[in-house]
Records
---
Amino acid sequence: MRLFENYAASCRPKSKKDFNVDQLANLLQSLQMDEVATKAYNSLFFSMADMQIEKFMGKWYTVVDSKEVHKEDCSIFYCKFIFILKMRCKFSVDMVLQTPYTATFTSKQYGVINNDVVTNEGYGSMVGPEPGAVLITTGSERDQCPFFPVRIGGLSDEGEYQYMILSTPLKYPTMVLTRDLTLFETKWKREVYDFVEKNGFMSPMAALNTRLHFTDVDVCRKVNKLYENGNV
């Protein structure tokens, strides 16, 4: 319950009615029963281990997204965690504060709408090592509430996560980020597809009969020049 309460407190207030917000409010109300909260928690995080925030270092590409919510194409996330111990990374993030089990960071996302590059700046937090304790806010006006990782996959030789699936208690919207586009296509895409299809992230009730969109990587390489810019 503590994690779900922390999630709800991280949502931005919204003046007009919103179907997803109403659904979220109904869900959170039902979670007042411990048994229901435990079932919901296990449904979201059954495949997650404890988080190691430093392994989010690096550049991330958005390869799967809920396009009814996020109109941007070919989005890229950057982070740059700055730890108290002077460890640095990149992920749409500047680390503001970090202790062994908590962290605060800022986030930045670049995407393309009608051939124009758009930028969203958000923030994130980690309130413990357990699944559900990491919240990432994109800064997009269409994202009232944060995302949390529900699955992380693969480890590089440097010990970095190779892809992660971000979602919400409603399993909508959902995004998948990867570090290596080619490796994702050849090694992780089928695994990700099977996971989101089997576990209700592909087309949940809140998505109103829409499905997750898998990005055409070849098109993105042409329309978003940041894709091949290793110095950004």
Note: The chain has one domain: 1-230.
---
Amino acid sequence: MALVAPESPSEQARRVFQTFDPEDNGFIPDTLLEDVMKALDLVSEPDYVNLMKSKLDPEGLGIILLGQFLLEFFPDQDSVIPDSFPVYHYNGLKQSNHNEKVSYVEGTALVMGFEDPMVRTDDTPVKRCLQTKWPYIELLWTTERSPSLN
């Protein structure tokens, strides 16, 4: 299992798309589709862009969804980063552990491609640290208390 790997074309597309979606809504105005396609070195001739607009926004709402965009242009590419993986935390400071007993804490990290308000675990320093690599990560610990960094 590889947690760090070179960026795949679909991951690059997700990153570029999200630069045009600064509020992280999961969509962009259809007027920005041409800019996204140019940034990704995709065919961006006006007629083709208009064809893609009508295909990606058949209801004519004026938005292009990230998921639909990735399915259209990168249908067979999956992320090499798994959806979940085990995490272990060890803090050797006696006072930072439950009952002052030094031990490691086991958990599961869920890496999502978007923020899911239905799955929200905690806002601990451990999670904030991991979010520098995986912005939409959720941690499920096997203990009642989340581990401490200090």
Note: The first strand starts at residue 27 and ends at 29.
---
Amino acid sequence: MGAKNHGVVMPDANKENTLNQLVGAAFGAAGQRCMALSTAILVGEARSWLPELLERAKALRVNAGDQPGADVGPLITPQAKARVESLIQSGVDEGATLLLDGRNVQVKGYENGNFVGPTILSKVTPQMKCYTEEIFGPVLLVLEADSLDEAVGIVNKNPYGNGTAIFTTNGATARKYTHEVEVGQVGVNVPIPVPLPMFSFTGSRGSFRGDTNFYGKQGIYFYTQIKTVTSQWKAEDATLKSPAVTMPTMGR
């Protein structure tokens, strides 16, 4: 399956909170989680926030996960590192702007570790390989849109439907987005909208196979064998003189 989770940033969003949430959701766990917010769509004047987003990403500390103060740990294997670096390079080759390059990051004491630092690619288009494939690393792709409708169109044209988030202080904007976006798990000012266990994990489209979501009510249904009992009790003995040979109804 796979995912390409988009965060749509409206110009009326709470700026400080939104920037912090984007950085945390994109680079936490070194981007190695299916609900990582790997793609940001900056709408309208929110484009001007990119330099501040960049500074916050630069401030993250790359180190072994068991070291105090580490923000971004290593990738899981050398092969994962090579794949992430290859997708970063593919973005550069196809015309994206590499604002922050986490390749060749050096971590003292772990020189041979599988580390890739926070990376940001801007001017990304939906046709680029770095966009069409799930990177699964600490890489944030930045796209731009002139309107909410354009942003919704970008998200809905992507084949995956695992998670998405919109950052806004406008209730009408949030309602429009949650109604029109074709993604199974939607956050409003929540960057990684993984539902609580009483709800189902509702990834959809290319991010889902089968017909039943796991845990929540759907998970209970999965483990439930349905039984139907049909009963009829009469207050008196039968008054009909012949048996009914048609489909039985409650009246006979």
Note: The mean pLDDT is 89.
